[in-house]
Amino acid sequence: MGDIKRKPNLYSRPRKAFDAARIAAEKEIVQKYGLKSKREIWKASAKISTLRNRAKTLIPKSPEEKKEFFNKLNGMGLNIENIADVLALKTENWLDRRLQTIVFKKGLAKTPLQARQIISHNSISVNGRTVNVPSFFVTKDLESKISLIAGKIKEKKEAVVEQ
Fold first, then answer.
1. Which contacts (CB < 8 Å, 24+ apart) does range 75-82 have?
2. Predicted local distance difference test score (pLDDT) of residue 3
3. For residues 105 and 123, what is the distance between their CA atoms, to the nearest angstrom?
4. Residue 71 half-sphere exposure, CB side, CA atoms within 13 Å?
5. pLDDT at position 151, please?
6. d(C-alpha 43, C-alpha 130), whole Å
7. Which fold has domain 99-148?
8. Which residues contact 162 (CB under 8 A, 6 or more apart)?
9. Which residues lie across from 126 on neighbouring strands?
10. Residue 107, Ramachandran bin (φ over 0: left; ψ between -120 and 50: alpha; else beta)
11. Rounded mean pLDDT, 134-147
């Protein structure tokens, strides 16, 4: 037998399982972004938490290191100018950069859930490559390279009902 290591969780569960305010807020986010489960919210908040912790460690560092970090975040599409902006990031900022959300906002799908469906059905390409992961993080330079794959989605023709 070899040493099999478990993959660490990419998120942590909320401390209080039945917090009515948190549950209501998460429900709104799930509906707004068309998420599959609340676990996706927890993953996004864990990523934001990681960025915040990195920003806190950069406070005493040189301006060059800060600038490099800010450039990386701006390349990701998070619009950061200083450490206060990083500390003010919300889970929604991360969820706005998901492929599912961007496909919906570009008008390639009518609802966030439809965007999720067409992504998982291999109907979306990013930079010429088919992507079937709704949580794919879209950087600023990839945002303009998102397109529908021709022939994958058939447009429904409106049937004229004559009476």
1. 75/139, 75/140, 75/141, 76/137, 76/139, 76/140, 77/138, 77/139, 77/140, 77/143
2. 82
3. 16
4. 6
5. 76
6. 23
7. 3.10.290
8. none
9. 129, 146
10. left
11. 95
* pLDDT, mean of residues 141-146: 94
Tokens linked to 150: 């021709």
Q: How many helices (H) and strands (E) does the chain have?
A: 8, 3
* Chain position carrying tokens 């390349």: 75
Q: Cα Rg for the chain, rounded, in angstroms?
A: 19
List the structure tokens of 155.
């447009």
**Ranges for all domains in the chain classified under CATH 3.10.290.10:** 99-148
Report the percentage of the chain scoring pLDDT > 70: 91
Query: What is the tens place of the pLDDT at every residue in 86-95?
Result: 999 999 999 9
What does the chain come to in residues? Answer: 163
Beta carbons of 118 and 103 less than 8 angstroms apart: yes
Gap between the Cα atoms of 50 and 8, Å rounded: 15
